[in-house]
Structure formats: structure tokens, C-alpha cells
Specification:
heterodimer, A: alpha/beta, Rossmann fold, Dihydrodipicolinate Reductase, domain 2, 2 domains, nine-stranded mixed sheet, six-stranded parallel sheet, 15 helices, globular, B: alpha/beta, 13 strands, about 25% strand
Amino acid sequence: MTELAENPLVEGLELRRRPDPCAIVIFGVSGDLTARKLIPALYALAVRRLLPEQFGVVGVARSKETTEEFVARMGEAVREHARDEFREDVWAGLAAGMRYVATDVSRPGGEEPVVRALEELDAERGTAGNRLYYLAIPPSGIADVVEAMGKRRTNEGWTRIVVEKPFGHDLASARELHATMERHFTEGEVFRIDHYLGKETVQNMLALRFANGIFEPIWNRQFIDHVQITVGETIGIEGRASFYEGAGAIRDIFQNHLLQLVALTAMEPPIDFSADSVRNEKVKVLRGLRTPGPREVVRGQYGTGFVEGAEVPGYREEAGVAADSSTETFVAAKLAVDNWRWADTPFYVRAGKRLARRETTIAIQFKRAPHPLFGAQGAEGLRPNVLLIHVQPDEGISLAIGAKVPGQGMTIRSVHMDFLYGGAFRTGLPEAYERLILDAMLGDATLFTRIDEVEEQWSLVDSIVSAWARDRPGFPNYPAGTWGPPNADDLLHRDQRSWRRH
Amino acid sequence: MEWAGVDVSVAEVEQRLARLRMEAEEGGAAQRTSVMTHIAWVPEPWLPAALETLRGLAERHPSRTILLVPEPDAGVAAIDAELELERFPLGQSERSICSEIVLLRLRGARAHAPASIVTPLLISDLPVFCRWRGEPSFGSGAFEQLVGVVDRLVVDSEEWDDLPFAYTKLGPVLDRAAVSDIAWQRLLPWRGALARLWPGLAEASALRVAGPRADALLLAAWLRTRLGRDDLALAHEEAPALELVAVDGTAVDPPEAERPTPSDLLSNELDRFGRDPVYEQALRSF
């Protein structure tokens, strides 16, 4: 670094930081995530020359497969899922550093073939002992991998470990898992991934708030009536019954994605954009989060219904789901952020499967104009101003404002001003995993979740789930293709408010 | 969607643009999303190249592009206009965005006052870029006026003949607007390759460059100013593209980067909003 700082020729070159030579080891490589997201993300990074020249990929899973078969299967995955056109030369470069290891690391000595493959890559590809372990496995398997690979750590190069959410299934298990990791890895080496944080629109939330002088002065209880955050999916559980039955919407989405969106919306300005500054501010919000009471949290489970005109089965009819399952596929809550900025300003959040629309949005609803200048009739079509952040799909921001309808008289109605991300910036949005994998290789943890954030998230979830344990819900309680159970509407109606419908 | 008119007023151009936008809306939700006004000063011989560059550019930078084609020797003073609205679909949604292309032929005396023609057509509160094709007529009314209305002047000194003298004329423009030279951008991978030779480069005494003259001059100016070495000698061999850079007789490993297209190069400049003090220092050294 000293040499670079003294080099007068570097100034103005904007040299993109390339990661050190390294190998990425994907545990659970036979899963869907690898084929749909991870390998296409690595390919996109290779297309843009963002990977180090000395690079290798080790795929680890229990199923028998040769390296040749693995490479061929991943090549197909890239053709199907990558955002760039398939280029034989780029793929050949990436594939040359790929190895497949069939092993079970939970067995004694099961990590041995992984270590050998890595040593081979060090020798053949110059990966210099630097390791990025990517744990694309269910939470129950994490401790085994951490123990197995942790005890084989060497002093050569760096080691980082990427863990998929959810981190644990409650506060106690998260702490236990953290204790296991702590035996072998420091907090700075653990990258807890929440792919929502890698989305451009989520990062743009920080730009919107802190790069524009007009928003921050009104971003508080004085001007904002309430906030609504929706993470809606139209799909069902897509064959993930074994995971989903134990997790439900609260652990799958609410505990991580949803609470992170709340934290980014409510946080104070950080002093800079470093990993710890941003995460310090987020954790303060998470510490101040609470639900006003059990009545302010609603859970639901979808029954038979219609999605995009087609009849779909209820949750309990999905393969692998118990016929009397009480797993929630929908959760909605009224959250309070206990601090000076947000006192008495509720955050209504909801997440669910088989909802009416696929959308992830953050809606900032401002207070009404204080004086009804135009009379009740003239302002019938007028709604309070809403700043709507579309996280997905149609990434962008829209602002609903009141405007006069042309003609005689003074009739006001709401109109939308839209900023569409893809409209203004036509470069193609990078996939979240591209950004996050690259950041992990570079050691930048800004967009990853720190252990204290995870603990605060679980504390809130545990307090909700413990109340649920006391009674058995009357499931199913909403038809697929709708916006959830009726008592989710009541949650807002009690406060003389209503959910956004579109 | 297109419209063309002979001997038109600027107001008529604005009205026709608005009408084209309304027609675009009728054909499905179309949004005018602009990030800048992009002016291009394009003498007739440069027009095919400019249009080619634009073809690969419009979708990437939704904007109003105003191509000014000066025809000062035309017998009559008039503005002829060709307007085009391009729609680009937005991903898988039903919506699309519109970019506006305005080609104005400035005939006769109209070519002498371009600022008064483009100013009413600038999009409010967005940056204005001007790509000047060929060697600017430094000191002319047209050039001085346009520099006065733009935030950034974009040139490509590989298109210039009068080097290095023209650089001494460009330097003072820095006091009025930001300047980008596409030739400078082409050097980026080579500058990176040279930077990696530090600190071995600190005592270099001779630079040999096989490539366009602009590239050789800019590279030498950069090294001299960054290293504080006025005595660095330059030997230049003309070649259509930068092929060889050698320091004290040793060839520098060519950078890996692929050669960008003209659209890519201009696109990169249109993404740039700040100033480049390293370039400015090199330019002012001529």
C-alpha cells in the first residue's frame, strides 16, 4: 500500500481493485443456488475481468459427479441463467480452474479431499492459499463445515467464510453457531450474506437518503405518517418444503430481508460508508425495534387460490408439507422504532408467498397537507404524498404528488413522477450476488450483516414466535393470489390506515 | 417516430418534439427519461461517423441529442431539422423510454450563432455535454459560444492535425468548462501498464511510442508531469493505433484490455462529471 500511495502514476487511473488470487469453495454445490446464482455471478465477474487471474472454484457436495460433469452442468447453468451472452473464451478460462469434490465433511476426514483440491489449485493456478468458503447449505450443516475447515486452517493467505441466511433459527442457535465460528474465524472473516443488501435499489436507498439534501430534513416523525414495507412473492415454496416447514415466512424473509430494509429506511446518517459505520447505525435501529403487542403481528397460510389465472394448491397440499402444518407463509406486523426520529411513526411490514403481486417496495407515506384548502370535493382524488421505492421488479422510485386537473374549477388528483432505474441508467443492473461475492473476495463487509445485527433480529423474532406458541392458528386463512388474511388489513384499519394495493 | 422540416424555427422544433412524445405515449407507456443534453458539433464530413457512434450510444444514455451540422457556405440562412424519437423497451415490462435526436443543419449565417439555437432546447437542470468532431476552430464565434453553454467539452485529439500546437489552444478552455479528450481515455490501459512499472520508471530518460501522434504526445506529457521530469525524451513513430510503448529501450507489456468501440469511448466520457486534474496538468504543460 505504501508503494501505491507513493506512486505518482496511479493518481487518476481509477484502477478497479481486483481481488487477491484466491479459490472459492462452494459447499452444497449441487443445490439450486449455485446453478441459478453463484456460477452465473462468477461468470459475469469473469466477463468484466473482475476476478483475479489466479482463480479457482471447488464445488463440494455429497452426490457423485466428476469434475467434467460438474463443469458441463455449470456451463449449461451459465447459458440459461447468466445475464451476459455465453462466450466460449470466458467460460473456458473460468472452467479451467473448476474442480468437483464429492465428500461429506461431517464425517471424520471428510474435508481431506477438499484440502487436497485446494492445494492442487494453489500449485496449478497460483491461488496462494487464499480461501473463500461459500456455505450454500442448510443452517443445520453449517457447524460441521466450519469445524472441518476451521481446524485445517493454515497461516498461509487469508480465509473468509460466507454464510447464507438464516443464521441460526433463533437467538440461542445463532449465538451457538457464532460461538462455533468464533473458534476458528474472527468476526472480520465471517460474511453473513443477505442478498437483498446487494441489490442496486437497496443501496440506492442510501444514495437517495444521504446524497439528496431534500429528503433527510423531512425523513422523520414530523413529516412522515407511516412506512409500509412489502416483500411479496407470487410463487409458492418451489419444492423447498423441508426448509420452509421449519422456517416459515418469519425466518425466511422477515428476520433478515424485511428487518434489514427497515434498518436502512430508519437508520441515522453514518459518518462514512465504511462497513462498521453503516452497520453501527443499522444495529441501533434494530435495537430500538419492537412490536407494540401480540395483536400487532399477524400470521397467515395460503389455501387454494388463483395466481395469474391458474389454480394453485394450498400450502398444506404442497409436496413435503404436513397436512396439518401450522407453518406461516405470511407475516405482517406493526413495528415501532423507539427513538427520537421515529416516535409514533409506525412501520407496517408484510411478507408472504402466493400473494397478489410479486413486489418488494418501501412506501414512505407523508402526512396530509395540514389545511384542506380545496374543499372536500375538489380533493377527492388526492392522496397523501407517497415516496415509493421499488426494490423489485421495475427498480426505481416514484413520488405521488397532487396536481390540478386541467379545466374549469379546482379539482386535485394524485399523479406519479417516476424514476425508473433501467430508464436512466441503461448499463444493466448487476445481480446482487456479483456484488456480494466480489466484496467478500475484497474483504469489504459493508453489505453483509454483523453478528450484533443478527442477534437483534432474532430477539425480535423470538419475542413474536414465543407468543405464537401459545395457540394454534386457524390455517389456511387466505386464498393464494390475495394480499393475505383479513386480519392483516385490520392491523392498519385499527389505525385508520390501509395497505397499499399496487 | 420522425419528423423533418426545412427552414424551421426553434420553437417549431420544440413543438414537434412535444408532439412526437405524445404520439409515443399513445403507442404504449413511454417515458422520457433524460440524464443530460448531448450536443454534437458535426461538420458534414464527420456526420456518418457521428451517426454511427450515436447508434451504439442512445440506448445507454437516455438524453436529448442535438446534432449541429454547420453549413456556413450555404447561400441562405436557415435551420433545417430532422427529429427522431427512439423508444427502448424497459426490460420485460410493457414500458419503454424515449430518447430524442435532433439534427439541425445550420445554413449560412445561422452557423455562426449556435448557442442561441441550442440554449432553448437544453433540458433544464441537467448537464450539457458537447462532442466537438474534428479539430475545433479555437477562437471562432461558434466554438466560444458553445463552450459558454456546456458543462463538458469532449474532443478526440486523434482527429487533429495541428499537434501539439492545438493543445496549447485547448488548455485555456479548462478555465471555462471541463474538457475530456477521448485520446486520453484510450491511453488508460497503457497508463495502467506504465504505473505498474513504478518505481523502476522514476529515472526513465527515453520514451518511444508507435501510434497516433496525439497518443505519443499525451503519454509523454503525462509521464513528464507526474514524474516531474521535463527531460524525458520522446521518440514517435506514426501508426494507426497505439502498438508499442518502450521505456529506455524496453518494451512495456501491452495491456490486456480490449479496444473499445467509438460508442463505448464516448459513452464513458458522458458518464464523467468531475474534472480530471491529472489530464489537466498534462494538457497545461504544452
